[in-house]
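Please review this one.

:::
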Amino acid sequence: MTMPWESGNLLVTILFGLVGLAILVLSSNEAVKRLIRLAEYFNLSTTFMGMTIVSVATSIPEITSHITASVNILLDKMDPKVAAGLVLGANIGSDVVQQTFILGLVVFLSGGLYFRRYFLWKSMIPMIGTTVMCIILGLDRTYSRLDGLILFGTFIAYLYYLYTDERKHYKKEEQPPVEDACSSPQEALKDALVALAMMGFTILSAQIVLGIGERIVAVTGIGGSLIGVLTLGVASALPEFTTAMAGVRNKDHGIPLGTLVGSNITNPLVAIGGGALISTYWVPGPLINWDLPWETLTGAALWIILWFTKGRMGKSGALALMGMYFAYIILRTLFFAVD
């Protein structure tokens, strides 16, 4: 049976793609809200929540897209190179937009954020390190199942480190409670079931978006990774933005910082690692030659600036971060449009 978005009209295909992206963002946003309530119910600090529970939750679009693409590759339902290009471009594109434009926008709208030096070592160095790992493992233009195991295993080890550190240092009274947190096991169960249902909608919408992306690649000849960067990558970063801004409104810097940095650790390690474990991936040249190096350099520059400013970033730094994103997109489109 031919799906409506498989018609010969490219405009109709793009419109269905936008609807799919909207469903993906809305369903993942609702899943994030429910998971945050669950995390508060289990007495986890906001920074730990941001680095683990929330960063994984806000990475649901990337994770489900990778799983869906990998299963389609195994079932021979999608071209392996196009599928890999779409999800890898979306993954790293999402990381770059979070690390530059969204972080800059959050800082600008909040008037400034403070990064503790402990956070710079504990969270930002691992963020940069995961990007370097992806470059090294992708130099042979393939993410094998062994590469996937290394990435995913690194996430499990890092998660264990964060958990032991959390249990050692966390004090409940240091933070305000999250509004509308679960107050009973019944509410917690309801939130868990709603979160699972929303993740189901995310998987369905990811399937639609990937199919549409494959068709656009075939019709236009544009590289799948560029389409992933410009569309799914931006849409996938919206849950992180809304969650980070909610934390800023509650005057809690732990959630926005933990979410944005934690998600940039989760995306490569869990989404790419998990997807590579399922099917292996062909790695597009622009990913190794431009996307990942740019993410590494901007992450390192951000770390150095924060170190010398004693962790403080104001509106001028925020504008510089947002400018870095537009430079990345313009140069990517001009010089790395084809995989």
In short: The domain at 9-172+181-335 is CATH 1.20.1420.30 (A middle domain of Talin 1).
